[in-house]
Amino acid sequence: MARLADYFVLVAFGPHPRGSGEGQGQILQRFPEKDWEDNPFPQGIELFCQPSGWQLCPERSPPTFFVAVLTDINSERHYCACLTFWEPAEPTQEAASAEDAADGEEELEDGGRMRLSPSAPAPASQLFAPKTLVLVSRLDHTEVFRNSLGLIYTVHVEGLDVSLESVIGNLLTCTIPLAGGSQLDSVEEGARTISLGAGDRQVIQTPLTDSLPVSCCSVALLFRQLGITNVLCLFCAALTEHKILFLSRSYQRLADACRGLLALLFPLRYSFTYVPILPAQLLEVLSTPTPFVIGVHAAFQAETQELLDVIIADLDGGTVTVPECVHIPPLPEPLQSQTHSVLSTVLDPELELADLAFPPPTVPASSLKMQDKELRAVFLRLFAQLLQGYRWCLHIVRIHPEPVIRFHKAAFLGQRGLVEDDFLMKVLEGMAFAGFVSERGVPYRATDLFDELVAHEVARMRADESHPQRVLRHVKELAEQLYKNENPYPAVAMHKVQRPAEASHLRRAPRPFPRLDEGTVQWIVDQAMAKMQGAPPAVRAERRSTVPSGPPMTAILERSSGLHANSARRLEVVRNCISYVFEGKMLEAKKLLPAVLRALKGRAARRCLTQELHLHVQQNRAVLDHQQFDFVVRMMNCCLQDCTSADEHGIAAALLPLVTAFCRKLSPGVTQFAYSCVQEHVVWSTPQFWEAMFYGDVQTHVRALYLEPPEDRPPTQQVGEALAQEEPPSALDVASEQRRLWPTLSRAKQQELVQKEESTVFSQAIHYASRMSYLLLPLDASKSRLLRERAGLGDPESASNSLVTNSMAGSVAESYDTESGFEDAETSDVAGAVVRFINRFVDKVCTESGVTSDHLKGLHVMVPDIVQMHIETLEAVHRESRRLPPIQKPKLLRPRLLPGEECVLDGLRVYLLPDGREEGAGGSAGGPALLPAEGAVFLTTYRVIFTGMPTDPLVGEQVVVRAFPVAALTKEKRISVQTHVDQFLQDGLQLRACTFQLLRMAFDEEVGSEGAELFRKQLHRLRYPPDIKGTFAFASGATHTPGRPGRAAKDKGPSLRTLSRNLMKNAKRTIGRQHITRKKYSPPSWEHRGQPPAEDQEDEIAVSEEAEPSTLTPSAGLKPADRLTLSSLVERACCRDYQRLGLGTLGSSLSRAKSEPFRVSPVNRMYAICRSYPGLLIVPQSVQDNALQRVSRCYRQNRFPVVCWRSGRSKAVLLRSGGLHGKGVVGLFKAQNAPSPGQSQADSSSLEQEKYLQAVVSAMPRYADASGRNTLSGFSSAHLGSHAPRARVTTLSNPMAASASRWTAPRGKWGSIRVSGRSGGPGVGVDVGSRLAGRDVLGPPQPNGAPPDSGFLRPQRAALYIIGDKAQLKGVRPDPLQQWELVPIEVFEARQVKASFKKLLKACVPGCPAAEPGPASYLRSLEDSEWLTQIHKLLQVSVLVVELLDSGSSVLVSLEDGWDITTQVVSLVQLLSDPFYRTLEGFRLLVEKEWLSFGHRFSHRGAHMLAGQSSGVVPIFLQFLDCVHQVHLQFPMEFEFSQFYLKFLSYHHASRRFRTFLLDSDYERIELGLLYEEKGERRGQQACRSVWEHVDRLSKKTPVFYNYMYAPEDAEVLRPYSNVSNLKVWDFYTEETLAEGPPYDWELARGPPEPPEEERPDSSAPQSRRRVVWPCYDSRPRAQPDAISRLLEELQRLETELGRPPERWKDTWDRVKAAQRLEGRPDGRGTPGSLLASTVPHHRRSLGVYLQEGPAGSTLSLSLDSDQSGGSSASSSRQAARRSTSALYSQFQTAESENRSYEGTLYKKGAFMKPWKARWFVLDKTKHQLRYYDHRVDTECKGVIDLAEVEAVAPGAPTMGAPKTVGEKAFFDVKTTRRVYNFCAQDAASAQQWVDRIQGCLSDA
Asked: Cα torsion for 8, 12, 14, 17, to the nearest 10°?
């Protein structure tokens, strides 16, 4: 029994001691006056009676009631029921408040007392003071308290004839039964009826189970006020320990809300601050750092605004405010959505019926109390689902004297599949759950509704999930039970309590609440106490039982483990591999190992592995040989690498006994255990893991203590919890039984059991100290650091879970990073750190497990000894393990090197890892997984080379080679290695090259970080040499005079300065003195380079003025030495090309050949005017050399306009220059008037510039003709966008005319570019280049001073178009003379090319796999790079220039500095316009002239030297080659060179193997003596220095650079499509050959594949000649050469076999072409006709492949000739094609008559025990073979007998099974070196004929 009320208190208003406006509560009386012994009086009641503060009121308020909750120091809750009413204030009270109101104006006499008689009428300012009746109880019976206090108030107000003292005395002595009414004997006992002696009666129902909370209607009210989402939010917040604050204007609502929230948390108990009603004076409590649930009156809402981390629930407004800094984890799905759905159904039952067409009659809604229980039932189900199976994760550590229970959180989360779930993780770590475990974990106790639910109803709940009605039914069942718990006897609940009359509070009270007589009350209490002492004590008989465990847990949401869904097949593979290992079948195991390592990503496979390994442990020990040990360790490491530190799946726990069981003998007495090789995992350094393992093992041993018959198993087998649970009875069952028996045992027996358990725990603690030292101490403990940082002593995140499988495990410890280790504040001593770690563990587990302090001290003494002993053991193991041979790593494959290439760093062992390209790693395209590969990286003076073999044993013995030139390196970055391949990987490096190679490497452990760093430094040194002499092209076999200082990056050294000064000085003299004889620069020898030339040598070299040869040979007037030097300049590529084009003569400016418009000027022969131009330049004949100096100042880098090409047909010229300087161009085009005589130098330059352009225009033969006007006014930058269609390069004035003329133009594929109309046609813009309308009335004078031409008013074509940057020409006015026109275009800059190239590299060779595999991401990144857009722009501008030149106008390309985009455009224009440049020789000339001589900055753009490192690689030349490749694709028959030639140049322009593409200009090459050194005796027998020389040499040997489809049309101008949609990504960017590395170093490439051996004569069919060609491995052109290359190779091979000197392939090819030409016209009629009929449309030629339908299907015709034009019909060309191909392909015709000398049917006896069969035999004299087929028309040969092997042909005898009808003479035998063949002919005659024929063949041979 328990007291209903502990104390009754009367609290009244009293003045504040400090005289403030507010009063304070004063306790007038309390009963009983002495504290109860078991329950002291709670302090601070007066604060809680009036939470808003004690204040007087001007009017009477009705009485109020609420229940406040106080929590004492023992966490006991006291319920304070407060009934407050108001009485007229006593004078002292009024005075206290009036004193403040008067504010000191008036001193009140007599201490401020004002006497008011009670009977006097209340004055207008009457105030009322609150008075509170308080009932303090430890029981929560709100309604009983309300009725009891109400009764006392009624007695007082209504003046009932009842003594208040007796009512209060009865209240204090009232006792009620404890919870568990159903267990009591009668209804009267369970539902106690009480009366306080005032004619009242109340029934108190005690709950059946006191563990279930009583909620009345509070939960339902909470949901009504806040809604489902908000309540769920508060529920999660309370469980995850956040601060929650309720606000309301009602105190009772606050109390109900707090009570409701706590009721939802059942079965967890809220253990933090809980104050449902917080007084105003205590508001600072809200700043506490601990979680709380508090209610505050809404009046104080403003004070709560500053709380940053408090969740505020406004009950009146129905809102919940969560601060930004607070994250409330939601319930795990699908529980969140399921709970939400059920709650909505409970709160709104009509929701399900709302959409029905015929809704049923309305269901009566549940009462509020019933709804309250239904809502609680939903949350009870939720907890049952969340905590299902929790008892399987309880570790019972001690049973006696009290149970000690621990919960295995990691296992619980792992088995529920909720490791990542934030909500459950926080709940399990919270205090509420800790209380839940200690309270409900006890195995033998009273059970309640939750225990039943979680044990027996989980299966039902899972089954009901998808049936809402069944869920609702279950909820209602649970609600009934909860309701019955609160109201066990609803029939008895009849109350009779007097209440005051309505508005009684407004009536004048007869008197204030009287002072009660303490003695009377005390006497009543004492009487009751005396009665109680006499009665026997009411002992509550608890019904205790074993708590049911329920079914084992399952995952909340069954997640498929994706890629590694563990099928039975995978588990089978794991089992097989382990059985192979233990059976010693190592090869089989090795094959399966990669599959096992992949399978071990899945949990089931890891569990399977541990179970299988357990089977191979006998007597706790399994001794293995070295190979077995390596395999086992490797699989263990693979298992552990995916374990988190928590080990939620118990894999590390299952492996822990195994790592101390598997071992190998290193030498007599020295054994190495597996633990020394699996230490590198974060799980071993996690204290929580060791605690869970310890408790699991202790449970197993404690359970074994009490099992009656000891089980037949090794006593020390520590399999842990998993096996313990499988064997009934479980540890909890044993513990439950022991707790039941405990009270019956004798004291001595109890003591004995306690000691046994304590000893068990102690022995396990020692055992675990040893285990921990095994896994924490590194093998080499002599080092003052550990393998890696450990949890609790360092940062566990920095650890890497690597696979350590080195047989020589001792070397493992040496390769770890020096920064890692047990870092401790005091010392980094290994042993000390491990001892501290173990001691902390021992302290924790032993204290929790109740080990005595003496034992604990003993443990602390033992731990250092255990560690020290283990260190000594390890020293021997470490020493012996170092003597073991290391694992047999693959032998390093040495790469082949070029002549002169030397190794800088010999092979460093590395793993080549897969990058973003799928092909090499197998990928979605299939194929073998060539990567990752194991091998070595070599650094040579020329290349970075990886050679190795794939780690996947199923791929076979394929050699993998990946290499790139050191000079091509663009980016090098360190990478963290994610992929775990065989060995322990240290750190990685990713190298990216501009030749589209990528090396992702991980260094092997033996390399070490020092080796990796050395590699990086050497690589950097080779990539960026300080000067050009450090590059491979110079360093390999250079023969320069030693001692000359190299060019420094900034200061170029004295020799260069001297040379430059001399050059400049001489140049100025030459220009200034207007010499009649011109000085020509002769480069001094290296010995004299530093000295200035003597003065008298200055005019030594003269150019004759009289003799003016028209060719560029040195003139006769030169001295012999001078002639040699001048001829060097003349022999340069540009001069050879000028000579070919007929551009100008070399002579003086005084006597000019008037017929020649242009001349070769030696003005720059000393590079004084422009260092980046060649020495000889083409300028207009009329311009003097001294004027060129002034002209050059107007252009950037002094690159003034010079002629570089002339059209042979239209005679228009192409000029190039740098961009204009602002001053020059403005002066040139803006000046309206003639310059005045006193002009400045700038004006002078501008005038010179204008004159120069005028001279260029005048030099053109047709600049003023009267043909149609051609303006490019409409050509704006818009046309250079990627959307511009191909046909609109220029805007035409008459669009209709344009479209009509487009395809009718006589030349090319585009329409005429001419337009009619003068200046403003509909299609012509007037912004740039439009002619001024008013000018054409007065025509400008002609250049020679003649009056204007009469035809001038007719529109004219501009003679010269200047193409320049749009930004540069902004605001420029057009030429007034209408002779030139500006075409402003927008072009990209070099930095844009650089950025675009970087993106292109990443798109084509990605560093890591794309997030979304498939072509889409590749194409997207390709588009983002904008590379093809830039190609499009270049082609578009080039085609525009080609059109202009073709129409007769000259063009000056004047973009940027004149050496990047200008070079690209000018080169492309010449390539498109002039067929000569499309030959091998012409293309070389073009590159030498435009790129080398005209100063493209190869070294700067390729970042060749240290100085250029920051600028990066800008592949301008590569972009040009890509443009050529695009044109080549569209016109494959117009180019003599192949695509491989372009790739070869692309590779080697960046490789620095040849000197051709080094340095930035001819000037720099002369300075180094490179320009002329290739001539004469200086060139020794050394490797080619020039790429052209190399190409020439190779071309003689192989046709690899030659295009067999070359069949050009004479004078064909190409106009390629330039839209992005027509462009293709160059396969140079994407292809790779892993078999041999890049194929561009031809000497290193392998030869053609060997032909397969001849077939065996008696194979039933010839062996297949097929072979697998892997796209990224083999070189496809080499593996599958085209037909012509194949035939040429075959021819060469046959010639070699016959002993004839092989003929050059080119001669053979030319002979075949000549023969084919003759074959093409057998009757001699008609013109030479191409194989391609002229009827093929012209534009189809660009596609290069022509299929013509013939009688036998389509035949592919190859054009092999270059000088044929068509006149033959399609049919004749078909016949020609047949004839020519028959000549080429004759070897492949097997069924033709000339190959069949004799044929017929013969019977042939099969091999041993085989029958005779008729076959069709063919005797072939040509191939010297006897072949046989199944029948006559069969084309597939079934076997071959080589006649070379025949020894004899003789008559034979019939054998068994021979044809019966044939005579004996029809048999004959053929005896070969291998066997005897038995034949049978139709008759004797045909047999004889066959014998004769075969012998005839043999004799012929």
From this structure: 30
Q: Which position has the token pair 């080697």?
A: 1548
Q: Distance between CA 1588 and CA 1136 in Å, rounded?
A: 16
Phi, psi of 273, rounded to the nearest 5 degrees: -55, 130
- pLDDT, position 1478: 94
Q: What is the CA radius of gyration of the chain?
A: 52
Please state which of the ranges 57-61, 362-366, 534-538, 553-557 shows the lowest mean pLDDT. 553-557
Vertex 142, ends 139 and 144: CA angle to 5°? 90
* CA 1324 to centroid of chain Cα atoms: 52
Q: How far is CA 1592 from the centre of its chain?
A: 46
DSSP state of 621: B
Q: Residues 1879, 1804: contact at Cβ < 8 Å?
A: yes
Is there a contact between 1731 and 1774 (Cβ–Cβ < 8 Å)?
Answer: no
* Residues near 1826 by beta carbon (within 8 Å), at least 6 away in sequence: 1817, 1818, 1819, 1820, 1840, 1841, 1843, 1870, 1894
- Tokens 């604050």 found at: 245
Q: What is the token pair recorded at 1152?
A: 């000019």
Residue 427, both tokens: 């709940």
**Cα torsion 300, 303, 306, 309: sign:** negative
Nearest CA among 162, 164, 55, 157 for reference residue 505: 157
How crowded is residue 1568: how many other Cβ atoms within 10 Å of its Cβ? Answer: 21
Distance CA 1531, CA 1524 (A): 10
Assessment of whether the complete model's pTM goes beyond 0.90: no
Preceding omega of 488 cis (within 30 degrees of 0):
no
Dist CA 981 CA 1593 (whole Å): 44
CB atoms within 10 A of CB 1453: 26
**CA separation for the pair 1179, 1185 (Å, rounded):** 9
Instruction: Identify whether the C-beta of residue 1437 lies closer than 8 Å to the C-beta of residue 1186.
Output: no
Q: What residues are paired with 1747 via a beta bridge?
A: 1756
One-character DSSP codes across 1115-1180: PTTS-HHHHHHHHHHHTSHHHHHHHHHT---B--SSS--TT-SEEEE-TTTTS-S-TTS-SSEEEE
Query: What per-residue confidence (pLDDT) applies to 903?
Result: 92
Q: Which residues contact 1567 (CB under 8 A, 6 or more apart)?
A: 1056, 1059
DSSP run (H or E) holding 908? strand 903-912
- pLDDT of 1230 higher than 80: no
Helix (H) or strand (E) holding 70: strand 64-71
Edge to edge, the sheet with strand 1876-1880 lists 1839-1842, 1825-1829, 1812-1820, 1798-1805, 1876-1880, 1867-1872, 1846-1851
- Tell me what pLDDT residue 1728 has: 39
Query: Residue 1199 has which token pair?
Result: 């690159």
CA distance 1643 to 1313: 50
CA distances from 489 to 275, 560, 1212 (A): 32, 51, 117
Report pLDDT digits (tens) over 1002-1022.
888 778 788 888 999 999 999
Helix (H) or strand (E) holding 1467: helix 1461-1473
Structure tokens at 1440: 């525009």
1285: Cα within 13 Å, side-chain hemisphere: 4
